[in-house]
Amino acid sequence: MSYIISPAFKGLSCQVCGQQSHGRRFDVLCCLPCAAFFRRYNGLKTKRRCQRENKCEKLGIEFLKKCKICRYRKCISIGMKMTKDEKILEEKEEESFLQNFIEAYEEYVTFQQKLFFNIYPEKVYQQALFFIPETLEMLNCFEMNCRPALLTMLNTSIKEFKNLETQESSNCSTLALTN
């Protein structure tokens, strides 16, 4: 992947991995992949351990990049840190995403239930916990009718999904239904 590098940072190396730095993030010079890694990994309460006894940095950059524990330790050791504002903003974004996704998923499930009872009105008062359509054709019909609701759920809850082209998003929903 290529990035546009500000002339001010040309020739400066990422303090984590040694690649071309893209700027100052989290109080250190680093590349975009290392900044993204730190943002994602920061704050995770993990009990994982390095499989190479914390020697990945000494073994080389490829080992360091593959070992999250050693890479995160290196980030901390060089002084990477999130400000309180960054932490608050990230927590709000996570809460907002989760809340939006839950609401969109609940609407999707409600749509599925309504569709199901429109197709099978005789099942409304049955006590069965779940129902499996008798034929593959019936299952495919049900899934095809759920696609618009699935796309709505994805579009309303995942901001990156909105940015996909129409064909790409329908391919994603097709993959979701076939897996």
Characterize this entry briefly.
The chain is mainly α and 179 residues long. The chain contains eight helices and two strands.
Description:
By secondary structure, this protein is mainly α. It has 2 domains: about 5-75, Erythroid Transcription Factor GATA-1, subunit A (Erythroid Transcription Factor GATA-1, Chain A), CATH 3.30.50; about 85-179, no CATH class. Helices cover about 60% and strands about 5% of the residues. It has helices spanning about 30-40, 55-60, 60-65, 70-75, 85-120, 135-155, 160, 165-179, and strands at about 25, 30. A two-stranded antiparallel ribbon has the order 1-2. The two termini are about 30 Å apart.
The topology string of helices and strands comes to EEHHHHHHHH
Number of helices: 8
Q: Could you tell me the radius of gyration in angstroms?
A: 23 Å
The portion of residues assigned to helices is 55-70%
Kindly give the count of domains: 2
Mean pLDDT: 79
The biggest beta sheet reads: 2 strands, antiparallel
How many β strands by DSSP?
A: 2
Name the structural class. mainly alpha
Please give the alpha-carbon distance between the first and last residues: 29 Å
